[in-house]
UniProtKB/TrEMBL annotation:
Residues 56-76 are annotated as: Disordered. Belongs to the glycosyltransferase 90 family. The lineage of its organism: Eukaryota, Sar, Stramenopiles, Ochrophyta, Bacillariophyta. This is Glycosyl transferase CAP10 domain-containing protein. InterPro entries: CAP10, O-Glucosyltr/Glycosyltrsf_90.
Length: 583
């Protein structure tokens, strides 16, 4: 039936069959599954329902290591039976609710797109901007229109610009041009007033640790000026309520909006890719969905390749990758089964210290052991259900191939399948399932777009942050959500395998969303919503504090009593790349 909706009698039959499905999954499809690491998680009520976390690294009591419990070799079939049955019913319910919420009057195909959540703010002044800078380590900037010189000046909150300058040069040029283009009457030299706009360009806002704490009133963040955050923003708006999610300073984000405002052309980055390439700027890989039964020919694995990288390290400095000497070696000489799971269990003992990407590696390691066991028992066509591995890592600050890293190879020797071959997006298009694991800013800036476009289904990693376009997407419409700690990834995979029609429908809706992003209609809509609208609100709401009446904004910043503010660039806003470095 169209849209994946079932008649009531059909759904009742489906629910009655869940027990049989679960038994079948355990006995016959179990060959694809890794063991589930069962853990109780806390629910955060601060997140929107569709981006709610069941795991907050800072909300748990146990922060340190626990001694691992080694596998006895007995499969917990009864527990898994109950878990699978509950999960499949839960996902049936979630999908039904999502489908019901998304039905309505016929519109253009972009009825799948809903307006992103706006950040509401009233009038603000320079003092509110200065207060905001006190909460940041660095990468927050005053973007000042100086009417006397008829230029846009950029001032950093700390001396010099070792952090974020390459990004702010690009951002400042785009925004300066956008302001002149869309509000020409507001920026007319000495006949106009100065204006101060706050900008941040960290992967996520680089705020100080005390500003995450409610006991410190989040550094009085409710009084901050609006901040254009050209990176990921926190979903918990109590942390930084005035942060406005803006397109990131890398392709296909801010550079594509710049191309649009300059030429009314959609950038190649969001167009179908014509040849095999690893570069996002060469276009998007959509894959061939015109083939008959293309879905059934995709490889049924959850695939991810990427770099071993930190996760929101300013907010969670305690989270880290496993260390062989401290996390594995102490247990190497203990008696343990010969199934190869002892090192996996040892790393599980790290608890909430373990980075999310490494949780995916553990799921892969477990899945590979089970697949090997089934092959040894005569099931030769078995593949692991999970294939999350590192193609790259950092060694002494340099990005290198994971296969060349000694620490990675050491972990491989004890059964941790961390090293994966490098795969381009054309090769990704052969797989049925993908995941966009978050990194330094809590998200993956290009991965979500690239993987939504692919023929397969995206398991979207729901974390503490989001990007500028995330609120346009809906769970169970464009993607299937998974928790930050990946504790439900296996169950979501199983649901997709047992519901191929619904899984394919979600995958195709995600692909259609990316095609819309790369259309003239989509680009015009997004440029208006994510560039013009926030700039209009800011231009309308900036007020000059009484104490600075008659003083230029630059003079006011210099005489504010705060030392260390430093000009890093200035821009005319009249041409592309109009910013020059300040002396």
């Amino acid at each position: 039936m169209e849209g994946g909706r079932r008649r009531p009698w059909s759904r009742r039959l489906t629910l009655l069959a869940l027990a049989a499905v679960a038994v079948s999954l355990i006995l016959s499809v179990r060959v694809h599954r890794g063991l589930i690491h069962d853990r109780t998680h806390n629910k955060s009520t601060l997140h929107p329902d569709h981006r709610r976390l069941l795991f907050d690294p800072k909300s748990v009591e146990r922060k340190g290591r626990t001694k691992p419990v080694h596998s006895t070799g007995n499969s917990p079939l009864q527990n898994e039976f109950e878990l699978i049955g509950q999960s499949l019913q839960s996902y049936e319910s979630e999908l039904a609710q999502a489908t019901h919420a998304q039905t309505g009057p016929a519109m253009s195909h972009m009825s799948v797109i809903q307006a992103a959540k706006d950040v509401k703010f009233g009038s603000y002044d320079l003092n509110a901007g200065i207060l905001a800078t006190e909460a940041f380590h660095y990468t927050i900037f005053f973007f000042v229109y100086d009417s006397k010189s008829d230029t846009f000046r950029v001032w950093h909150n700390v001396p010099g610009c070792d952090h974020g300058c390459a990004r702010i040069y690009r951002i400042a040029s785009v925004i300066a041009y956008a302001l002149r283009k869309n509000f020409p009457g507001r920026f007319k030299g000495p006949d106009s007033d100065d204006i101060v706009i706050m900008m941040s360009c960290g992967d996520a806002p680089r705020i100080k640790s005390r500003c995450y704490d409610k006991a410190n009133d989040y550094c009085h963040s409710s009084k901050f000026a609006p901040i254009l955050q050209f990176g990921s923003v926190y979903i918990d708006t109590e942390i930084l309520p005035s942060a406005i999610a803006m397109p990131m300073p890398v392709r296909p984000h801010i550079p594509c909006f710049d191309e649009w405002q300059l030429s009314r052309q959609v950038c190649q980055d969001l167009q179908p890719r014509s040849a095999m390439s690893d570069r996002i700027r060469d276009g998007i890989v959509f894959g061939d969905t015109r083939r008959k039964n293309y879905w059934d020919k995709l490889i049924p694995q959850v695939l991810w390749r990427g770099t071993d990288f930190a996760y929101l390290h300013l907010k969670h400095p305690e989270m880290r990758p496993p260390n062989y000497k401290t996390d594995i070696l102490p247990f190497e000489n203990e008696a343990h089964p010969t199934d190869g799971r002892w090192a996996i269990n040892a790393i599980h003992g790290m608890g909430e210290l373990l980075l999310p990407r490494w949780r995916g590696v553990l799921l892969t390691s477990e899945a590979e052991i089970e697949a090997r066991e089934y092959r040894e028992s005569g099931n030769s066509n078995v593949i692991p259900w999970c294939n999350i591995k590192f193609s790259h890592c950092y060694d002494k600050g340099e990005k290198v191939l994971a296969i060349d890293n000694a620490k990675m190879k050491h972990l491989e020797r004890v059964g941790i399948s961390a090293i994966g071959e490098r795969l381009n997006m054309t090769e990704h298009a052969n797989y049925k399932y993908h995941i966009d694991l978050g990194g330094g800013g809590g998200t993956t800036w290009t991965g979500t777009i690239e993987k939504l476009a692919l023929p397969g289904l995206l398991f979207h990693h729901v974390t503490e942050t989001k990007d500028w376009f995330h609120d346009l997407l809906r769970p169970w419409k464009h993607y299937v959500p998974v928790k930050t700690d990946l504790s439900d990834l296996k169950q979501k995979f199983m649901w997709a395998e047992e519901n191929p029609k619904e899984a394919r429908q979600i995958a195709e809706a995600g692909t259609e969303f990316i095609r819309w992003m790369g259309s003239e209609e989509g680009m015009e809509s997004m440029y208006s919503q994510f560039i013009v609208d926030p700039l209009r609100d800011i231009v309308r709401n900036y007020k000059v504090p009484p104490r600075y009446e008659g003083m230029s904004a630059i003079d006011a910043i210099q005489n504010s009593g705060h030392e260390g503010f430093h000009e890093v660039t200035w821009c005319t806003g009249r041409i592309k790349n109009s910013c020059d470095k300040s002396s």
